[in-house]
Amino acid sequence: MTLAAYKLLIAMPLQQPLLETSALGLTPSFRCLLISQSCPVLPFYYLYNIWRIRKYLSRWCTKTLVHAFITARIDYCNSILYGLPDYCINKLQRIQNAAARLICQQSRFCHITPVLFDLHWLPVKFHIEFKILLITFKALEGLAPSYIDSLISIKSTPQYDLRSSNDSLLLSYPKPLSKAVIQGNTG
Q1: CA separation, residue 55 to residues 43, 61, 102, 103, 135 (Å)
Q2: Between these two residues, 171 and 106, which has the higher pLDDT value?
Q3: What are the Cα distances from residue 45, in Å, to 29, 53, 99, 105, 123?
Q4: What is the Cα–Cα distance from 89 to 86, expressed in whole angstroms?
């Protein structure tokens, strides 16, 4: 495998979406091939099968099945989707909306916001941001694994009085990894 196939997300600035991540088993492109071609088909198949037996299940059992087959797949590596256009994220949002309607036994024409609120679910776009913020918070507090801790560091206070010195927390960009570190050569 080439070096380009082992790009790391956390070592890249969060302003630009990640174009390729083969190390995680996912290869999303900027045009959202992962979401548009492979993602929506399987969750709707599972939702249909759960819908067929829904009348025999309690709300708790339905929520457990939906979480096992649907939301776990939506949440898997969803932080690599940060920064993608809304039309890509909306495909995942439609899956989440259908799952919420199935659990609460609502029609497909009802408003989804109260249903998501009742289930204590965030919309997909906000859930992605929440996940990234939670990982950052854990890294700053020393609760994250060491491989994440090493990627986030706090800038020291500048010697001169700058406008940015009023901010209580400034994060520095991580140092780029060398080819030897990525390939596992220790020298």
Answers
A1: 19, 11, 11, 11, 39
A2: 106
A3: 24, 13, 11, 17, 21
A4: 5
Indicate the domain borders of the chain.
Answer: 3-157+166-183
Mean per-residue pLDDT, 2-9: 36
Answer whether 21's CB lies under 8 Å from 40's CB.
Answer: no
What is the rounded average pLDDT of the residues 76-82? 81
pLDDT of 7 strictly over 60:
no
> What distance in Å separates the CA atoms of residue 47 and residue 51, rounded to the nearest whole number?
6
Model pLDDT for residues 16-36, shown as the tens digit of each residue: 444 444 444 444 454 455 555
Torsion from C-alpha of 10, 27, 81, 29, nearest 10 degrees:
110
